């Protein structure tokens, strides 16, 4: 068996949540078969990362395609160069990360495709519509609503033509179909060094980790800094917010860089160092459609969290509020829960232990597990059912012709 893995991210067990999910899928596939990797990153990949990666993996290059699918875009067919590449390699399966990758490569409707949508992109469009309505921009909200109607119809039509579609969680934005499968986010557990936190109440380190070129991350963090952080530093002036991640827009870098209790760390190679002196981490995300894989990463590093309700989606049954982490429904609750964790180190350490245990139990990759064995079996079952239906139709047509 031979598989092509089409992904915008190099599958690395570090960096963005997208890279980590790609790594999870890639490692599953490598246990089953020979896997070629073709990247489709619209902005390009770091040469250093590519040079290191292709030494040990079957890397086929990067094709630059758009990151999104406009609602008015016409469906694509595979171009001749890509078709020749597929014919030359004769892949049994093509596993594709994201709907827009399958769209631009013209793979919608291909028989041997397994599509990992990860999250439903329609959720972001609905959020845009709701924000416009809240801000009383009714004409723009109506236009967005019309766009969403067309986008939803096309999106559902397209993914219904794919034999197997995986999601990290169920979405309220679309009806659930028989070819949809839940593939939850998981992380390869590591053995981070012991934490070096100072448990003095006077000194307290809060960390945020995420890709800062992603709008929901820097917008949510800006809301936190403007509306929540001032209350924290007013009561505990020796509290520091460490912001870790690359791609922060210049205007936010200038704005946040002027604040005394905020430290901009940029991209950090060794994630263990990020959590080593952190008392807690945060995920103040108020828009977006993702299940935030950095939550699992933080808990596996024995660093408990205070997160927004939106960031908690997908973890409601495994990482419970008040046991594995704290979930805040509004700004005041966010402030109160951070205060409580600052004042109660014993409770914080208990929550750290619980969070790590539950992250290991429900969201860590285990050596004996391979989610794609079941997914490929589902695909084969669907193909057999389709073939059976075709045979039944053919026989009934013959019978009708005889009559």
Task: Characterize the structure shown.
It comes from Microbulbifer bruguierae. This is Glycosyltransferase family 4 protein. Pfam families: Glyco_trans_1_4. Strand 11, helix 11 (293-300) and strand 12 form a beta-alpha-beta unit. A 7-stranded parallel β-sheet has the order 3-2-1-4-5-6-7. It is globular, with a radius of gyration of 23 Å. Helices cover 44% and strands 16% of the residues. The longest helix is centred in the C-terminal third of the chain and has 32 residues, at 371-402. Residues 386-395 have low confidence and may be disordered. It is of the alpha/beta class and 403 residues long. It has 14 helices and 13 strands.
State the gist of this model.
With 403 residues, the chain is of the alpha/beta class. The protein has helices at residues 17-30, 47-53, 80-89, 99-104, 122-134, 138-160, 215-227, 229-235, 250-257, 271-276, 293-300, 331-343, 345-363, 371-402; strands at 2-7, 34-39, 58-62, 93-97, 113-118, 164-167, 180-182, 204-209, 239-244, 262-266, 280-283, 304-308, 326-328.
């Amino acid at each position: 068996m031979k598989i092509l893995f089409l992904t915008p991210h190099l599958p690395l067990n570090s960096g963005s949540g997208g890279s980590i999910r790609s790594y999870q899928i890639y490692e599953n596939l490598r246990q089953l078969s020979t896997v070629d990797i073709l990247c489709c990153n619209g902005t390009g990949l770091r040469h250093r990362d590519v040079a290191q990666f292709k030494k040990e993996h079957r890397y086929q290059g990067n094709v630059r395609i758009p990151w999104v699918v406009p609602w008015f875009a016409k469906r694509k067919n595979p171009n001749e160069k890509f078709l020749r590449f597929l014919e030359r390699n004769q892949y049994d399966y093509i596993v594709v990360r994201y709907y827009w990758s399958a769209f631009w490569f013209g793979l919608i409707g291909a028989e041997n495709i397994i599509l990992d949508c990860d999250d439903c992109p329609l959720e972001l469009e609905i959020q845009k519509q709701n924000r416009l309505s809240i801000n009383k921009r009714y004409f723009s909200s109506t236009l967005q609503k019309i766009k969403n109607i067309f986008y939803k119809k096309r999106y559902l039509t397209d993914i219904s033509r794919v034999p197997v579609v995986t999601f990290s969680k169920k979405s309220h934005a679309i009806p659930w179909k028989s070819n949809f499968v839940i593939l939850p986010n998981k992380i390869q557990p590591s053995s981070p060094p012991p934490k070096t936190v100072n448990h003095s109440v006077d000194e307290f380190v809060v960390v945020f980790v995420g890709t800062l070129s992603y709008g929901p991350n820097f917008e949510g963090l800006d809301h936190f800094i403007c509306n929540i952080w001032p209350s924290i530093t007013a009561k505990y002036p020796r509290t520091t917010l460490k912001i870790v991640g690359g791609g922060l827009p210049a205007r936010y870098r200038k704005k946040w860089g002027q604040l005394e209790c905020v430290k901009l760390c940029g991209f950090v190679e060794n994630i263990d160092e990020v959590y080593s002196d952190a008392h807690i981490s945060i995920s103040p995300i108020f828009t977006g459609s993702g299940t935030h894989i950095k939550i699992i990463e933080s808990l596996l590093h024995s660093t408990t969290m205070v997160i927004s309700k939106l960031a908690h989606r997908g973890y409601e049954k495994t990482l419970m509020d008040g046991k594995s982490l704290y979930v805040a429904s509004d700004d005041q609750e966010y402030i109160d829960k951070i205060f409580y964790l600052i004042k109660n180190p014993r409770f914080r350490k208990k929550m750290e232990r619980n969070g790590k245990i539950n992250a290991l139990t429900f969201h860590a990759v285990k050596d004996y597990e391979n989610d794609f064995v079941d997914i490929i079996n589902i695909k084969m079952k669907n193909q057999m059912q389709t073939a059976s239906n075709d045979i039944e139709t053919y026989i009934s047509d013959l019978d009708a012709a005889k009559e």
